[in-house]
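Backbone-to-sequence.
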């Protein structure tokens, strides 16, 4: 792959690194291709339990590379509107695919995360930030709507509607401390340590049962939109009974009683 790297760095933990450091990892159409392929493969990979996404160099992702987008020959072949709609749909689909991965996803934000880069971070389940991290909704600063690539859905659910509205309407850059204060990131670490922090969280996740983790993620995000507490509890109840009948659960109980670390399969 030319624009990303994908590496299993620990048992059951994979790191996907955006690799265009000279452009602060701005996304090209080629990068979309490669991330899509990697995410599709990971969605079927039962051995990977946690995915960490980060950027090479001093940036996480500075957003869409507009020079690359404008140079695509299909823009003139399809027509401006048709090309724009096709690209928009594809970009949005990628964010959804990352968000809906069965694995836990951690964004290790090592620098600027703007526009599409912010959307990539929002697609993760957990975000940790380096002190140099910066975040903004860049779309509104270039004459477009601030509601793009899932931002209008994910951001208010993460930081609340008031903070989301201010970010989306102004396009203002916020630093790592403000991102932490409003709940956008879990914690801040020194520059150069953010992937290590993400891997520490990944290790704690991997210590739990594969089925339990996958069901937790699925129920968590489904119940954010639950119509009532009763509906949320019904989904929880069914999931708990399913989990209680797995080999994972029996192994976890045996390990607890035997005062040892559990050894889970990949199911």
């Amino acid at each position: 792959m030319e624009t990303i790297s994908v590496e299993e760095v620990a048992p059951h933990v994979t790191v996907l690194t955006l690799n265009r450091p000279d452009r602060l990892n701005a996304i090209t159409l080629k990068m979309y291709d490669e991330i899509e392929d990697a995410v599709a493969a990971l969605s079927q990979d039962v051995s990977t339990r946690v995915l960490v996404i980060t950027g090479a160099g001093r940036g996480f992702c500075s957003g869409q590379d507009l020079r690359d987008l404008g140079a695509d020959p299909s823009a003139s072949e399809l027509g401006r509107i048709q090309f724009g709609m096709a690209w928009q749909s594809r970009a949005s689909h990628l964010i959804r695919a990352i968000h809906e991965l069965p694995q836990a996803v951690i964004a290790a934000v090592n620098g600027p995360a703007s526009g599409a880069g912010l959307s990539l971070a929002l697609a993760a389940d957990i975000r940790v930030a380096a002190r140099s991290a910066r975040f903004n909704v860049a779309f509104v600063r270039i004459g477009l709507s601030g509601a793009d690539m899932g931002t209008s859905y994910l951001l208010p659910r993460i930081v609340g509607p008031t903070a989301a509205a201010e970010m989306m309407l102004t396009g203002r850059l916020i630093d790592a401390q403000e991102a932490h204060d409003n709940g956008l990131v879990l914690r801040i670490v020194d520059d150069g340590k953010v992937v290590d922090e993400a891997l520490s969280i990944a290790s704690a996740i991997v210590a739990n049962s594969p089925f339990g983790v996958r069901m937790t993620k699925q129920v968590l995000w489904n119940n954010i939109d639950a119509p009532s507490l009763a509906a949320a509890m019904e989904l929880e109840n069914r999931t708990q009974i399913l989990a209680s009948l797995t080999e994972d659960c029996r192994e976890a109980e045996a390990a607890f009683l035997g005062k040892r670390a559990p050894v889970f399969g990949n199911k």
